Amino acid sequence: MKSRKLDQLYRQVIMDHYKNPRNKGELSDSDVTVDLNNPTCGDEIHLHLKIDGGVITQAKFTGSGCSISMASASMMTESVIGHTEKEALEMSHQFSEMVQGHDHEPIDENGDVEALAGVAKFPARIKCATLSWKAMEKAIYETENR
């Protein structure tokens, strides 16, 4: 019974982020913008990051896709703001481990990202969940190679 209630809570968190996305929009003065898509299902993300002294100070996204993809983008932007690029990359690694069903370290302070752990039960949805995180990784690597 506890597992069912937890699953229901997680679904509510995912739907909240999908219906009320955090950090949705564009940054006209972003340091880097990355566009990625998942050709398998049509999800797409346009991620904008503002980075100051190696710290992600702002993150916004636009795009379209399924509830998992868009909720994950909302959660990711909330999670990485205020963290260093290195910390954000580690968070992305931990997220990837989580959605593949592996042991992982806690990812975010408020625990919303953990709501996506159930994606591990649906391998076809892993790419949906990781799209925004891969965009963030690509954005960081692009800023490092400037």
Mean pLDDT: 93
Order the strands across the largest sheet as they lie in space. Answer: 1-2-3
Large-scale geometry = globular
> What proportion of the residues is helical, as a percent range?
40-55%
| CATH topology label | Sufe protein. Chain: A
Helix/strand/pairing category: alpha+beta
What is the annotated CATH architecture?
Alpha-Beta Complex
For the record, what CATH class applies? Alpha Beta
Q: What's the domain count? A: 1
Biggest sheet details: 3 strands, antiparallel
Number of beta-strand segments: 3
Order of helices and strands: HEEEHHH
Strand content: 15-25%
**Rg estimate, integer Å:** 14 Å
Number of helices: 4
Straight-line distance between termini: 52 Å
Runs in which pLDDT lies below 50 for 5 or more consecutive residues are none
Pfam family, one: NifU_N
Domain NIF system FeS cluster assembly NifU N-terminal: 10-128
Protein name: NIF system FeS cluster assembly NifU N-terminal domain-containing protein
Organism: Listeria floridensis FSL S10-1187
Characteristics of this structure?
45% helix; Sufe protein. Chain: A; NIF system FeS cluster assembly NifU N-terminal domain-containing protein; 146 residues; three-stranded antiparallel β-sheet; NIF_FeS_clus_asmbl_NifU_N
What's the short story on this structure?
This protein has a single domain (2-144), classed as Sufe protein. Chain: A (Alpha-Beta Complex).
